[in-house]
Design a protein that fits this description.
Its EC number is 2.4.1.25. One of its GO terms (biological process) is carbohydrate metabolic process. GO terms for molecular function: 4-alpha-glucanotransferase activity. The chain has a single domain, classed as Glycosidases (TIM Barrel, Alpha-Beta Barrel), CATH 3.20.20.80. The protein has an eight-stranded parallel beta sheet. It has a four-stranded antiparallel beta sheet with strand order 5-4-7-8, with no helix packed on it. Strand 1, helix 1 and strand 2 form a beta-alpha-beta unit. The protein is 38% helix and 11% strand. It is an alpha/beta fold. The radius of gyration is 23 Å and the shape is globular.
């Protein structure tokens, strides 16, 4: 598919302000869409929406590739439905306004979701329709979550063998034993997607399209791997991962990144007609308009590391059937509204795969100014069919990046962008924003942190550090000022992006 020239903002829903310690799908999400409209933007890019596990990464440790994150459910919306009382949803106290404190948020919100469930009439036509339409993934997921709770959080490979190996009689007995917990999990998913679809309709009605995100890998301790172990390289005796995913040493880490996810048995995926993968894309496109495919290069070849390794250095590249997969996907879904995250070690073969299907690739301005005149992230080298960012969720903010940038690179940036010296540069965040909007790239996306002019303390994720990521949020919709909106809208119109 071909994008028209457009621009937008990168912001995950958990980063929205909320009285409950984490962004949700309530009033602030609608206010953010209104801000986008007034700013002349047409694209809202989010991160994966799934329920997160260890350290709450939306990319590597989700309990499902299909489910929604319960922590994003708006409690105020449940009050409007009469499932909660206003005095029951008082603001969460003693949490930092610009950081998600998961240790406090999780018990607070889950207790109130359970209270709402107790008042819910589960026989509603809307709930029944949701269960019928989504049952192909929902039933595995809700039982998985009920079993996870019953097993005190132990991974599924350590459950009793008959359940870990999904023996039908044992599964049926457990589903009956845990039916109340299963029903609660189904209720939470129903409310998440009900609220998300209402928000998406509001966005679409206001000419905002949502760019979703498919993380290439899933967590071992997920309903996906538990329900489809044949699609992954697992040890048949222990059911643990035989190999895990990552990337070799790169810009972000001298020892590479070891993500901990199991790698796919692509031969098994291909033999099934890529059924699970097609279902995954089809499900995602029920809830978003475009899909950014994270770690796109993994569809051409992926970095496989023996599970016993402590770093990603001693892995190997293994070929994947990317062309066959995307051809099959196109046959099933028609034109593919896909963006390719093609960062890192990109070979000519990856570029051929990307261009074979006309997927826009990514350009990052923060990668552009290393002094190499052939650097593909320099704006003068962009094709029109690409998407440019000042930075992504994996980068520092523009100001944080500038404050730590080597003097030589500052000089290159100044010369490239027409300044006499770095000392002449004011508001580096707006310099990068305007450079992105002015470029030939069809699409330009700016993280909200850069619009707000925030320093490195507002960084969403640092891939070289595992603990403490994915916690930033802005503390009030008041920071979305008319001044910022007017400035962004003026630049957007100046560079013909709306």
């Amino acid at each position: 598919m071909k994008f028209e020239r457009a621009s937008g903002i990168l912001l995950h829903p958990t980063s929205l302000p909320s009285p409950h310690g984490i962004g949700d799908l309530g009033a602030s999400a609608y206010e953010f869409i209104d801000f986008m409209v007034s700013s002349g933007q047409t694209l809202w890019q989010i991160l994966p929406l799934g329920p997160t596990g260890y350290d709450h990464s939306p990319y590597t440790m989700n309990f499902s590739a299909f489910a929604g994150n319960p922590l994003m459910v708006s409690l105020e919306k449940l009050v409007e439905e009469g499932l909660l009382k206003a005095d029951e949803v008082s603001p969460l106290a003693d949490v930092p306004p610009e950081r998600v404190s998961f240790s406090k948020v999780i018990p607070h919100k889950m207790a109130l979701l359970r209270k709402a469930f107790e008042r819910f009439d589960g026989s509603t036509p809307e709930m029944e329709a949701f269960s019928d339409q989504q049952g192909w993934w929902l039933e595995d997921f809700v039982l998985f979550m009920a079993l996870l709770e019953a097993n005190e959080g132990k991974p599924w490979s350590q459950w009793e063998d008959s359940i870990a190996r999904r023996e039908p009689a044992a599964m049926k007995a457990k589903a009956e034993e845990l039916k109340e917990s299963v029903a609660f999990q189904r209720f939470v998913q129903f409310k998440f997607f009900e609220q998300w679809m209402a928000l998406r309709r509001y966005a679409n009605d206001n000419s905002i399209q949502i760019i979703g995100d498919v993380s290439i890998y899933v967590c071992h301790n997920s309903s996906d791997v538990w329900a489809h172990p044949q699609l992954f390289k697992l040890d048949p005796e222990t059911l643990e991962s035989a190999y895990i995913a990552g990337v070799p040493p790169d810009y972000f880490s001298e020892t590479g990144q070891l993500w901990g996810n199991p790698v796919y048995d692509w031969e098994a995926c291909k033999a099934s007609g890529f059924e699970w993968w097609i279902s995954r894309f089809r499900a995602t496109l029920q809830y978003v308009d475009w899909v950014r495919v994270d770690h796109f290069r993994g569809f051409e070849a992926y970095w496989q590391v023996p599970a016993s390794e402590e770093t990603a250095m001693n892995g190997e590249w293994v070929k994947a059937p990317g062309e066959a997969f995307f051809e099959t996907l196109a046959d099933k879904l028609g034109s593919l509204p896909v963006l390719a995250e093609d960062l890192g070690i990109i070979t000519p073969e990856v570029e051929v795969l990307r261009d074979r299907f006309n997927f826009p690739g990514m350009k990052i301005l923060m990668f552009a100014f290393n002094g190499d005149p052939n650097n593909t992230h320099l704006p003068q080298h962009y094709p029109t069919n690409c998407i440019v960012y000042s930075g992504t969720h994996d980068n520092d903010t523009a100001i944080g990046w500038w404050n730590t940038l080597a003097p030589a690179e500052k000089q290159v940036l100044a010369q490239t962008l027409g300044y006499g010296s770095p000392d002449e540069i004011q508001e580096i965040n707006w310099v990068l924003i305007e450079t992105a909007l002015a470029s030939r790239a069809d699409l330009a996306i700016v993280p909200l942190q850069d619009l707000l002019g925030l320093d490195g303390s507002a960084r969403m994720n640092d891939p070289s550090k595992i603990p403490g990521n994915w916690r930033w949020r802005y503390d009030s919709s008041k920071v979305l000022t008319d001044e910022i909106s007017d400035r962004l809208r003026t630049l957007t119109h100046q560079y013909n992006r709306r």
